[in-house]
Design a protein that fits this description.
By secondary structure, the protein is α/β, with parallel strands linked by helices. The chain has 2 domains: 130 residues, no CATH class; 180 residues, von Willebrand factor, type A domain (Rossmann fold, 3-Layer(aba) Sandwich), CATH 3.40.50.410. Strands 1, 2, 3, 5, 12 and 14 form a 6-stranded antiparallel β-sheet that branches. A 6-stranded mixed β-sheet has the order 8-7-6-9-10-11, sandwiched between helices.
Length: 350
């Protein structure tokens, strides 16, 4: 969620064409019918009329204007949601050629008031955090993690537009490389990680989102933000809870891709933890059967990052109260599955 301040001079507020979400569409998908979207008119208030643009020093209007013809500055605040999502078929293959009309969306159980843009296979800049479990429990698998993560960065990061950081964690987060587009520095950061200690997974995710990803796009063009988490999902040292970590990811609008280091044939609580984090943020959890397969999971993530859609819209009946707003996005062709974050926190009014 971002807030944009716009000024208009003697012009009506003209917005792009809306998303074709109909009430009938939603009634076929679920029993609760969403209200029809209201006309996309920004709520505006004229500022106190100051000296007109081009007014002469003596206070008279410029040539060609009649007395009483004044220019007003109208300030409008447009709340926009940037939503990145992925579509797959039942075999997990990415579907990349769908159109805006192929989707329906509810934000806080209402159709959006306005859609500003819809992009296939978005090439928005990437901001990726590599977060690697360095606790004692993964010591024997650590070298595979480092090698696979380094290969992923070299294939995924485009130095002209993308940036990444590297963080390890055991009891505390350990930032080895801050935001950079320098692949050599990122590789050095990964190789500098050392294993040992307890596990504070939730603290690590919370810290990465709060300290690195929450402000990653502030003052810039929209970006895609993601964490690639390599861990067995266990946690025995965190002060934060699982729900705290998930909420901070949602505040930072960050997708989490989790790769499990648990290669045992049976699932445990850590696997469920990784699944919950990934699903709540619109990501995906991978469970390789062998550590050697981890590089394949990184390749799947790389492929997904190249197969995403990007949607920017204005929510209906928006209130800047800091509350959590749910997102429900689906494809009208029910053969396909949409993976997107489950919601976001509205900013609080100043």
């Amino acid at each position: 969620m971002k807030t944009v301040l716009a000024s208009k001079f003697l012009l009506p507020c003209v917005l792009a064409a809306g998303f074709p979400f109909s009430v009938a569409t939603f009634s076929r998908a679920q029993s609760q019918t969403a209200p029809a979207p209201t006309p996309p008119l920004a709520q505006t208030q004229p500022a106190i009329p100051a000296k007109s643009a081009g007014q002469q020093p003596n206070g008279q209007p410029p040539n060609g204007q009649q007395p009483g013809d004044q220019q007003y500055t109208i300030t409008a605040t447009a709340n926009e949601v940037d939503l990145v999502f992925t579509v797959t078929d039942k075999h997990g293959r990415f579907i990349k050629d769908l159109q805006q009309r192929d989707f329906a969306l509810l934000d806080d159980q209402k159709a959006p008031a306005q859609v500003y843009s819809f992009t296939q296979q978005t090439n928005l800049p990437l901001r990726v955090g590599i977060v690697i479990d360095t606790s004692t429990s993964i010591r024997q698998r650590f070298s595979f993690e480092q090698q696979a993560a380094a290969e992923f960065l070299f294939k995924s990061i485009q130095p002209r537009s993308d940036k990444a950081f590297v963080m390890g964690f055991d009891v505390t987060p350990d930032y080895k490389q801050d935001w950079t587009n320098n692949l050599d520095l990122l590789n050095t950061g990964i190789n500098a990680l050392r294993s040992g200690g307890g596990t504070a997974l939730f603290d690590a995710i919370y810290s990465a989102c709060r300290d690195k990803l929450l402000d990653a796009s502030r003052g810039q063009e929209p970006v895609r933000k993601a964490i690639v988490l390599v861990s067995d999902g266990d946690d025995n040292q965190s002060h934060a809870y699982l729900t705290d970590a998930i909420k901070e990811c949602q505040r930072a609008e960050t997708i989490v891709y989790a790769i499990s280091t648990n290669v045992s044939p049976s699932r445990d609580r850590g696997d469920d933890t990784l699944t919950k984090i990934a699903e709540a943020t619109g990501g995906r959890a991978f469970f390789p059967k062998r550590m050697e397969d981890m590089s394949l999971n990184f390749a799947d993530i790389e492929d997904e990052l190249r197969s995403q859609y990007a949607l920017v819209y204005k929510p209906a009946d928006f209130i800047a109260n800091g509350a959590f707003r749910t997102i429900y996005l689906f494809c009208l062709d029910r053969r396909y599955t949409v993976r997107a974050r489950q919601g976001y926190f509205a900013p609080k009014s100043q």
